[in-house]
Specification:
seven-stranded parallel sheet, TIM Barrel, alpha/beta
Length: 386
């Protein structure tokens, strides 16, 4: 399991008016850093001091905690509220530079671009194996606003309303993965799922692409009826489509509550039909590989419990090349060649051993072990012949 630390660059307090006393002390200490918009309180994205503060927070987390990634979702500039302009005119006047006075939208986008690039640099300078990933709103731009946009008619978009130019970040290689929230169904009139994921698969610029699946829509809400009642296999159809697009490397399901509720028995469907085998996540940090050394002293020993233990050693490395987990492949008796299929993965483990039952021991003649670094690069294989 990887730990991706979810952060929000701008949203400070949700429904701030409901608090008798403000729970976020910084809003008292630095009130000039914040903007009230709708029911929420936001860091002002146009202030250099805010960017500096955000970088310090991220640096502290990456330096002092063993996280695998820093993760943002779709909350950059807030979703627009009808007839309520975002009140950043004063900071635009002070820090707008050449953008002032007529290009406030471009200035806002540039504010977000700056912090994304700075955060990527901050993370990679401290621990180059830590990923930086973003889960944006599903539509970058509508084709009616930009010929490079998707053939959709979304009410708000990343570029035009949230001032998040995701394509620029991908083109400049500032992200390790992008995870668009494609929470619509196949055939949706304004935002068709298949149109959206096809667009992202053609515009990911080689960055690891995962798709956010709207599993929360398998509920009993009236506006989600097209998912659960009319089309109960929607998630399955989406996963089949994903599998047909080679650029899509996996899925993320929103939200975990859906697995607890298990609507339509979706947990069993996913496990039995789509996720039968363990598999290593895609490698990250494509510009720099951290290849660990192969394991050593691999052997099989008989235990007193009538079980057998496959064990190995791993040389300590610097943090980049350190082996943090291991893949063990188990070949059937009639297989004498190396087979790197997910169906042959016996286990992905952080231990330096696995225990085998007598039946498992008799089933196989060959085991293959690969060390895995923090960014999921693998070592050369080591074969253990029984």
């Amino acid at each position: 399991m990887e730990f991706h630390a979810w952060l929000n660059p701008y949203r400070a307090i949700v429904k701030y008016k409901e608090f008798q006393s403000n729970p976020f002390r910084l809003t008292y200490e630095k009130p000039e850093w914040f903007i009230n918009y709708g029911d929420n309180k936001y860091f002002n994205p146009g202030l250099p001091k805010v960017r500096e503060y955000t970088n310090k927070i991220v640096a502290d987390i990456v330096q002092n905690y063993d996280v695998d990634a820093i993760h943002f979702d779709d909350y950059f500039y807030p979703y627009k509220i009808k007839d309520e302009p975002f009140p950043d005119e004063n900071s635009f006047k002070e820090f707008g530079g050449d953008y002032y006075p007529n290009r406030i939208d471009d200035w806002r986008r540039n504010n977000v671009n700056i912090i994304i690039e700075e955060l990527f640099t901050t993370i990679k300078t401290i621990k180059p194996w830590v990923q930086f990933g973003i889960s944006p709103f599903g539509v970058w731009r509508n084709i009616s606003d930009d010929p490079n946009g998707s053939n959709t008619d979304a009410g708000q978009t990343n570029y035009d309303d949230l001032y998040a130019d995701i394509l620029l970040w991908l083109e400049n290689d500032w992200l390790d993965y992008v995870l668009p929230q494609a929470y619509w169904r196949i055939g949706h009139k304004k935002a068709d799922y298949s149109t959206i994921v096809n667009w992202w698969s053609k515009n990911n610029y080689g960055t690891n692409l995962y798709i956010g699946q709207g599993m929360y829509r398998l509920d009993n809400k009236k506006n989600h009826r097209a998912w659960k009642k009319k089309n109960p296999t929607e998630i399955e159809k989406q996963l089949i489509l994903n599998h047909q697009l080679s650029q899509i490397k996996g899925s993320a399901f929103f939200s975990a509550k859906s697995f607890l509720k298990n609507p339509l028995g979706i947990n069993q469907i996913l496990k039995n039909n789509y996720y039968q085998n363990p598999i290593l996540p895609p490698s990250t940090n494509h510009n720099k590989k951290f290849i660990p050394e192969p394991v050593s002293d691999a052997k099989i020993s008989k235990l007193k419990t009538k079980k057998y233990r496959l064990s190995w050693e791993s040389l300590p490395e610097n943090k980049e090349k350190e082996a943090v987990k291991f893949i063990v492949y188990q070949l059937d008796k009639n297989e004498n060649h190396v087979t790197f299929k997910s169906s042959r993965i016996r286990e992905i483990t952080g231990n330096k051993f696995i225990d085998l039952s007598k039946k498992e021991y008799k089933k196989s003649n060959i085991f293959i072990i690969q060390a895995v670094s923090r960014n999921n690069n693998v070592s050369n294989p080591v074969r253990v012949i029984k």
